[in-house]
Amino acid sequence: MTLQQLEYIVALDQHRHFVRASEACFVTQPTLSAMIMKLEEELGVKIFDRSRHPVMPTEVGQRVIQQAREILAATARLKTMALDVEEDMTGEFRLGIIPTLASSVLPVILGPLLEKFPGLRLEVKEQTTEQLLQALVEGKMDAGLLVTPLSHEGFREWPLFQEPLMVYDGRVGAEEKREVQMNELALDRLLLLEEGHCLRAQALRICDLHKSKGPGPFTYAAGSLETLKRLADVQGLLTILPWLTVHQLSEADLKKVAKIIPVEPVRQVSLVSWRSALRERQINLLSSAIQEAILPLLPDPFSDSRHVIPID
Q: Are 100 and 132 in contact, with CB atoms under 8 Å apart?
């Protein structure tokens, strides 16, 4: 039994397709298939039911795959043990980031991080929250930059900042209003991100803080904030944009942004690691550097009128 074989069965479980799994592992399909069959012979069990399409793990196979995930995660953590004793941020650091933070936060922090830590080899991957949390559990990421608090057990959170959520109104003449009462927000005029984005759940919660109508005649689940903003312009609808995204807008578009009152909704952004991660020292250094870059761009962080919006 080898770690490589364990990686293969985890990949096949994830993709449920031999060709896609082999491509993800950078091997040929016959090689991956042969190695998995060899592992099954060694264990004396069938890990996958190949008669089903897509291929599915057997009942015992599910337990084997779960154990394989734990072994691979432990192995990844073992490889980082030596790095944790370093006083500086050196070597490779794998950072996951959710899409609604990547476009606004990453351009701000990347330069300062690389300048502050010249020995850092930063590997950044954009993923949804659920994908990122799974990658942390499996040891594929060292930390994740995402929205918290989480309802998942086993994760450690390093809160970084609170980012206000603003209303973008695509109607002509919307620039006349600089503030919007929470009870004026209607779900039937709201454009949302697609399922899997925490900002979608937060936008729905903001509207659910009062009695709202159901969805309107036009609904569209977008995959990016830029798409939402453009659709809002075309259809004269609303969407919710984070503060740092708003400040990338043109002067004309900024006039269509309004603050939500009387309680300002904010999202809490944190660095997150798995409970048994071994890079606490590096995560602390990274947290401080990110705050140095981001906090000057945000409004008063001590406002009494803020409300952190849950993500689920």
A: no
pTM of this structure: 0.68
C-alpha 266 chain-centroid distance: 17
- Count Cβ atoms below 10 Å from residue 295 Cβ, excluding itself: 11
122 shares its domain with 155: yes
The domain tally of the chain equals: 3
Residues 6+ apart with CB under 8 A from 259: 164, 166, 167, 178, 179, 180
From residue 73, how far is each of 25, 148, 281 by CA, in Å? 16, 23, 19
Contact criterion met (CB below 8 Å) for 184 and 210:
no
The whole domain housing 9 covers 3-80
Phi–psi pair at 282, nearest 5 degrees: -65, -35
**CB-neighbour burial class of residue 277 (10 A; exposed 0-12, middle 13-18, buried 19+):** buried
- Please give the pLDDT value at position 218: 47
Stretches in the chain below the pLDDT threshold 70: 77-88, 172-177, 186-188, 194-196, 208-223, 276-278, 300-305, 312
Residues 114, 73 share a domain: no
Q: In the listed set 28, 48, 80, which residue is the last one of a domain according to the structure? A: 80
**Residue 209's pLDDT is what?**
47
Tokens 């950072």 map to which residue?
95
| First-to-final CA distance of the chain | 40
Residues 151 and 169 in one domain: no
Q: Are 7 and 73 members of one domain?
A: yes
Angle at 110 between CA 298 and CA 253, to 5 degrees: 45
Quick one: pLDDT at residue 171?
Answer: 75
**Domain match, 38 and 157 both:** no
Query: How far is it, in rounded angstroms, from Cα 232 to Cα 238?
Result: 6
Per-residue model confidence (pLDDT) at position 303? 57
